[in-house]
Amino acid sequence: MTSHTDHNLALFNRAQAVIPGGVNSPVRAFKAVGGTPRFITRAQGAYMWDANGQRYIDYIGSWGPMILGHGHPAVLEAVQKAALEGFSFGAPTEREVELAEAIIALVPSIEMVRLVSSGTEAGMSAIRLARGATGRNKIIKFEGCYHGHADALLVKAGSGLATFGNATSAGVPAEVVQHTVVLEYNNVAQLEEAFALHGADLACVMIEPIAGNMNFVRASVPFVKRCRELCTQYGALFIFDEVMNGFRVALGGAQSVYARSLPGFEPDLTVMGKVIGGGMPLAAFGGKRAVMEHLAPIGSVYQAGTLSGNPVATACGLATLREISQPGFFDALSASTRSLVDGLSAAAAAAGVPFSTDCEGGMFGFFLLPELPQNYATVMQTNGARFNTLFHGLLDRGVYIAPALYEAGFVSAAHTPQDISETIAIAHDAFKLL
Ligand SMILES: Cc1ncc(COP(=O)(O)O)c(C=O)c1O
Predict the structure, then answer these.
(1) Does 3.40.640.10 match the CATH number of domain 73-324?
(2) Which atom of ligand 1 is nearest to the CA of 245?
C-alpha cells in the first residue's frame, strides 16, 4: 500500500474495529475488487474527495440518487429551509402531498403513492400489498435482480420450477422463501412454464426492468410484454422495481421507455427510491387506486414508518424532481451518458479489449465481453480479475466507478463535456493495463 492511501487505510482500520467489515453496506468494502475503500470527506458537482484529498470524477452518485450532481444550489436551498422548519413531526405535512402529486403527474400508471424511507422497505411493502390485495402467497422474481434485502427476496433458484428457491443469506428460514419462485431473466419459455404451474397462486411478478444490479441488462420488449399478458391473464400484479430506473433512465421511468414499444403499457405497482429522495432517505411505492386502497388505515394491509414522508427528505426529493422536469433535461443527460460510453468503447477498442456497453438516460453499464449479456449467468462470465485491474486503473487516476463488475454506473447533470473527456483519456491509459 502506498502512502497515498494512508488516511483512507487508517480510517478503514478504525472502522473495522467498530462496524462489521468497516462499512454500513457490504459493497462499499471493496471486497470484490480488493484494496482500501475511499473514505469520502466531501463532494461537489461531479466530484468527490477522499480522506487523502484526492479528487475523483464520480460515476456512482451514491448508487443512483445524485442525478443533479452533489450540492445542487436549488436542492441545498430547499433542504436548508426545510431543516430550519423542523426535522420530523410524525404528523402529515403539505410537502408529502406535493411529492405524491409530483410523482403521480410524472408516472401515468400511479394513481396513489405511499412514501417510505428506503428501497428495501418500498419493495417489501409492495409485495405485502400484492399478497394482501390478491389473497395469494407466491411471488416470481428473476435471477440477477436485486429488490432490497427483505427476507423473501434473498433467494436464488432451486433445482427446478416445482422446487423451492434457496435463501442467499444466513438467517432466512427456508419457510420464508418457499413462496418465492426464481426464474431466469429474459427467458419467456420458463416464465410461461412457471405460470402454467403456479399461476393461480401467484400474487405478483417483480422485475428490475433495466436491471442495474447485474450491471446493465435490459428486459427484452417481448419478455416484458409476456410478463404483462400472463399477469393480467392469471390475476397477478406486475411490479416494476424502479428504485434505480425511476426518474433516472427517463422522466417517466423505465415504464415510459417500454411504453414506446408497447403502447399503453403499464405495470400494476411501481417501487421507487434513489432519485426521488435526491440523496436523502426516501423511497415510495404506488399504483392503481383499487390496489393501493388495500393499505392501512383504509385497508387491511399494514404498513407504517416513524420517518416516512420526512419533511427534510421530501423537500430534497421535490427540489430534485423539479430540476429534472425542466425541458431538455433528459436529452442533455442522455447525450452526456452516450458520449461517455462511446468514448469508453473507443478506449477499449484501441487497447484491443473485448467490450460491450449500453445506456439509457443517465444510467450506463459495460462488460468486458464482446456482446451484451441477456441474463445473470452470462454477466458472471466476465473475467473478474480483468475488471479489477480496470477498476483500480481508473480509481488511481481519479475516476470512481462502482467497485464490482455487476453494478451499473450513473452520469449526473453536473458532469461537463470536459469531465467526460478527462474520463475517456484516463480510460485509454487504464485499458492498456489489461
Ligand atoms: C432495483 C433496486 N431495488 C431496491 C433496492 C434497495 O434499495 P435501498 O438500498 O434503498 O434499500 C435497490 C438498491 O440498490 C435497487 O437497486
Answers:
(1) yes
(2) 1
Q: Report d(CA 128, CA 302) in Å as an integer.
A: 8
258 is catalytic: no
> pLDDT tens, 385-426?
999 999 999 999 999 999 999 999 999 999 999 999 999 999
State the average pLDDT over residues 250-254: 98
| CATH 3.90.1150.10 is held by the domain 1-60 | yes
For the chain, residues classed under CATH 3.40.640.10 are 73-324
Domain with CATH 3.90.1150.10 in the chain: 1-60
38 Cβ contact list (under 8 Å, min separation 6): 8, 48, 50, 51, 54, 56, 395, 400
Cα distance between residue 162 and residue 78, in whole Å: 52
Residue 1: pLDDT band by 50, 70, 90 thresholds?
very low
Known catalytic membership, residue 274: yes
Q: Does ligand 1 have an atom closer than 6 angstroms to the CB of 244?
A: yes
Q: Nine-digit cell at 236? A: 397477478
Supply the mean pLDDT for the chain: 96
